[in-house]
Batch of 4 targets.
Target 1
Amino acid sequence: MNDLETYAVNVSRQAREAGLKLAATHVESRTRAIHRLGELLRASVAQLLAANAKDVETAKATNIATPLLKRLILDATKIEAMALAVDEIAAQPDPVGHVIESKTREDGLKIEKIRVPIGVVLFCYESRPNVTTDAAALCLRSGNAVILRGGKEAFHCNQVLGGLIAQSLSAAGLDANSVQIVETTDRSVLPILLKQDKYIDVVIPRGGESLIRAVVADATMPVLKHFTGNCHIYVDRATLPVEDVVKLVVNAKTSYPGGAVCNAVEHVLIHRDVARRVVTPLFDALAAKGVEVRADEAAKSFIPGAKDTTQQDWDEEYLAFILAIKIVDSLDEAIAHINRHGSHHTDAILSTDESAIDQFVMRVDSASIMINASTRLADGGEYGLGAEIGISTDKLHARGPMGAFDMTTYKYVVRGQTHLRD
């Protein structure tokens, strides 16, 4: 066994041992650790900014993509936001031991279905230092041990954060191995960790599609996936006033700098009956925000200044200020298009027709359906979950934004008084 393999196996085994203890820990200890982490973040601003400056300097030298660089950069305001997110998680109800179902048979046998931690989580992610503290706090809230494999671009900052997390665990009397930061930037360690299914229960990758597909290919334990965010807005024939349509689409595309976020709208489908009223003002508003608009042949008859679409466009997650418009003849065509080309992340309908809305909700196969609302609202914080560990486009076992309750599974507890099977 080489040194890297020895390291990965030891980290995984330590996480398993810590997780078994953490699952039996009283909620007050876990809450105290999370609270302490928030305090330490506020007390360590200078140290965090110094570490982040090293990461940013290195990232710039390697010509990191602009969206990743923006997510990497910290300032005092962002660190305060990290602390506030941790505080919110500390204030959440404890999911561990929550009774999902309970029934008592006529013979007195009581059967309960209760929430329990998943066990050990391997979390792989890129760039954003705030994800480190979000994930640590969410896993502590839900009683899970976690191995955090951050990207090399945030290595120095994550090492400092790892020290703060260790201090918070120690202050609460918890095993320091409950949250471990991988201490090497060597990419070879990840495939080894992904083979430790003896110790690790689930892996959650959060980052670009290439990272997620690599994890899926190598992992021997279940993977909670979020491949892409190819989000749609369908403008129904019985739609909202044009100014509201424009406002919602522009928000869904441009409210995050550069549009490089998974819940930004990428494609807008417009019913032919309202195209004449909607397409031109929508194009003008998007262009004014610097969005490159692409359009199918029917839409281009209203906006000749738009670029042509290709068949590839409809499967694309642009992660940029680019948006494609398509004219459809019916609700059925819109739904079929979304189910064929979408990524099952978030899709919206703008309509005043309750029948059309009901059809859209029932038939579009996505984790979040928005009705007369921006796709950008598909977020753990907006859903009242506090921070999220990710947005799952899978169906098992969690779907959509994942908070602390989504980081649990369940067990049956059966209470009897010398009950026997007939």
Note: The chain has a mean pLDDT of 95.
Target 2
Amino acid sequence: MTPARPLSLASRSPQRRAILEQLGFDFAVVESSYREHHLPGTPAEVALTHARGKAGGAPAAELVLGVDTVVDVDGVLLGKPADRAEAAVMLRQLAGRSHHVHSGVCLLAGGVARERLATTEVSFRPLSDHDLAWYLATEEWRGRAGGYAVQARGAALVTRIVGDYTNVVGLPVAALLDLLGETGEIVRC
């Protein structure tokens, strides 16, 4: 399945690019003028607002995709850590418990916005000081919501995932395909 028209991805995320490439989509990465900032609301609401902003801030195109992924621990949003110390704090918060990963997905097709929210539950194993030091040393925490990358060495931190794995990576495929289907953009091969 691929979109009938080329997709403009309003994201620099290498994970999102990799997922679209795996799906065989024809797409181009475009720069959005939207900049993430602190917003009121639940983590899920913030993810949707940022996704909408990213799509709306991209250069005009027939099909624009904006996505934002956040980590939610008891209603508290964990974004991307600013530094190693903040990554350590986030990972300690996640250790030995479950949290939710929310991705807001906004697809602009012909100037009409359609949105989906994907939520996945992720459980971490307890982390020793040694585990934490090892993971921080990998530098994978950089630029990652919640300070981890489940598709790489961060898989060693996780004991269970309930829901869409691709959502935790950064682009919920099922939500994207639903939106493309609503617009009539899906071409079945």
Note: Helices lie at 14-23, 43-56, 84-94, 129-138, 165-169, 173-183.
Target 3
Amino acid sequence: MSLINSQRLFQNPLFVIGMITITINVLVSLGGANIRPDSSPFANNQYLELAVLKPMTRVSFLKVPRAINAENESWLNKYFVGSAENFELIPFDSITIDGDNLVIKKYREERFERFAISTLKVIEEDQKLGRWNVKDFIEEKTMVLGTDKYGRDLFSRLMAGTYISLSVGLISVAISLILGILLGLWAGYYRGWHDRIILWLINVVWSVPTLLLVISITLVLGKGFWQIFVAVGLTMWVEVARVVRGQVLSMREKEFVEAGRVLGMSNMRIMIRHILPNISGPIIVISAANFATAILLEAGLSFLGIGSPPPQATWGKMISEHKAFLITGDAHLALLPGIAIMLLVLSFTFIGNALRDANDERILLKND
């Protein structure tokens, strides 16, 4: 893309807004569990007594140590998914000291529980000196966006869902590009019976409704994290193949392609080294559009209950779990993940439109 078009891209306010939104989502995804208020696996710490708290509610927790066996967890899984905490957190309303025991009044309950101080985690130096501080056992958390109906931190769940949406979009688009570019290049360059067979396959896949095709592939592959990537990617390659085929059909008659044949270059080298770089503009544009489509498809599958299985945090599943709250005072439980989906999809749409306009301008400049 020319320097002029690059400058015009960043002068487009919608392109800039889209880039900023996507960058924030990428940073949240790369931060993994380390930057989430709830760093447990999938941000799935459930406290039923904390169900549907209002935003900015502050809750006190008693930290009770527990044995954690994390030997089989990979560092990658701990970083992105989360790891079990060394403490069990018990929400409470009030706490009193009774000799060598802490007595807490459970949150929103009338019953009391007693914990021996010796069973709680205490700083060793204080133990030796016979001193301890009640603050050592207490942790306070602010539920920035409140909690869902299971008492999970809604803000942490939204952050965890970012990782899923971007991962599905990235891997699905990669799968669609690999299949679409290979088949489109082959059909457009060789033409003849190659083109007829591939075009027939494209039309067959194109004729099946996208969501129905994704559901069918998901049922065949099974429900799971990686199966969603493959299922969505296998439905989007036809658009890439059609665009690549059309571009190659016109490009193969250019003088530089004929010169390559005369110089004895192989067909594969001509396609990969000379034709493909010259059709990269439309491919980039359709990739941005497919990224948005993949996010919507994943959200739709999760809403229907055939996406990533629980307790995985996905925006579509969050909407499905809380759709009944839309007519209550806690409609934000369903609206916030819906807004997250809308903003991310709109961002890729803005970028795709800006890239399309820039690519059209590049073509016009070449013709001039």
Note: The first strand starts at residue 57 and ends at 65.
Target 4
Amino acid sequence: VAQTTAYQMEYQGRGWLDPNSNAEYAKSFQSTPDHPKCLICGMDVDAHTAQRSAYHGVTYYFCIDAHKAIFDAAPAKWS
């Protein structure tokens, strides 16, 4: 039985309390290229479709355009 990721639960409307969730990933703020999180709010995002910005060679992901704009206005504050 494959585990459901926090991203799948969020975007498929299954909610965070699904007993089949990947509990360790759901508790972690760690953003990785395979499982990125919005830098501003911590929401799970899809690496293939998310807004992104690069700063000092690091790629940051965002769930909405407004969060990308917040980062782009002052990237040193968020990195």
Note: The mean pLDDT is 75.
